[in-house]
Request: fold
Amino acid sequence: MSDVATTAGGGGPSGDGGIGPLSDRLSLGVAARLSRYLQVLTQARKMGKETISSQELSEYTHVNSTQIRRDLSGFGKFGKRGVGYNVDLLVSQIRKILRTSGQHNIALFGAGHLGKAIASSDIFADHGFRVVAIFDPDPEKLGEQVGPAMVRHPDDLRQMVEEEDIVVGVLAVPTAAAQPLADQLVDAGVKIIFNYSEALLHVPPEVTVHTSSPAVDLLYALYFYLT
Amino acid sequence: MSDVATTAGGGGPSGDGGIGPLSDRLSLGVAARLSRYLQVLTQARKMGKETISSQELSEYTHVNSTQIRRDLSGFGKFGKRGVGYNVDLLVSQIRKILRTSGQHNIALFGAGHLGKAIASSDIFADHGFRVVAIFDPDPEKLGEQVGPAMVRHPDDLRQMVEEEDIVVGVLAVPTAAAQPLADQLVDAGVKIIFNYSEALLHVPPEVTVHTSSPAVDLLYALYFYLT
Reply:
């Protein structure tokens, strides 16, 4: 379940007012929809699609096409009637609006199956996230090349965070190992933690934890299938 | 980004009216919040917590505690002032309300790093999903035991779906392989596809595709951190 559940929940305004000037902070709802459009647009670009219509975007995002046109009309004319939106242009515009156009460096913990899958895929790289460090305390794994980086001991974390300007820590570790690593990340100044373990992490309020939960996403999908 | 984004977006009603009798279909918003509570409760249970307060639930879900108490008051008295909710009881009640108490069988495609990570973890098992079949066309992997199941050739899919009552297909495969497998799943009658690839999948309207997108979840978290 993504943090978006918060939005759907008691959280912020529902954000149906379209997108204001860049100086405004987006509502949770708008930011969630833009992220969703961005996901589909990135997939479309990978598959060689140059243009996409609001109907197609609607089909893949389940947001209705009127809402999509309203969201996207707010920040310029990208759509041409009958042709659709230019995929490349829309990707860069949305990333600009989400202020995430830059390069963001990730520290990955755990060089097991999941860590290796993450490090060798381009799911993160496609969105400007770069795995610059992989940590695992297993002496047999130290020095091993996994995807773009070499496995290091977690003791090197603080130094790597400073040298590599790491903003996100990804925990692909067993549940019992997660909290101590989260503490180390917080101590080292990392503000976003992506948690693939099942630990409930205690962090200070200024740190954001996103816990991956594919099974709960499935339950949610199943509910609407079964009823 | 989870399907919940849809909820936050233009989708259904915002669902702030609490939870009605079991015969009603939940709004997208309520179902999303319940799924989110369920995630945290399951984590809490794993960590040996027996009770949890609405304040704690709020801290982990980012749903405000008044909303949580309202959601949970609708279906019985689980909470005791000063003690909190009984975790086990709440888990089984929410699963009953989400009508996902049973056992649901999964077919997993891809016996690479990601497939192995999924098959050997209990992220799905904890929520009643059981990986009953793993498919990979690589002759070297055929017959290999991966987590709870043996690797089979994708040609056996239809037979396994019938024999094992498979309701969900999980695609942990390269992007180019995803659409043909989705087609086979649809042909075999599977109605929910969990897509870890970056393919934009074409499926009939009665089939639900959930595409995993950790990077987009991260971008979304980053936006609220940066602004």
Q: What stands out?
A: The domain at 104-214 of chain A is CATH 3.40.50.720 (Rossmann fold). Chain A has two domains: 7-97, 104-214.
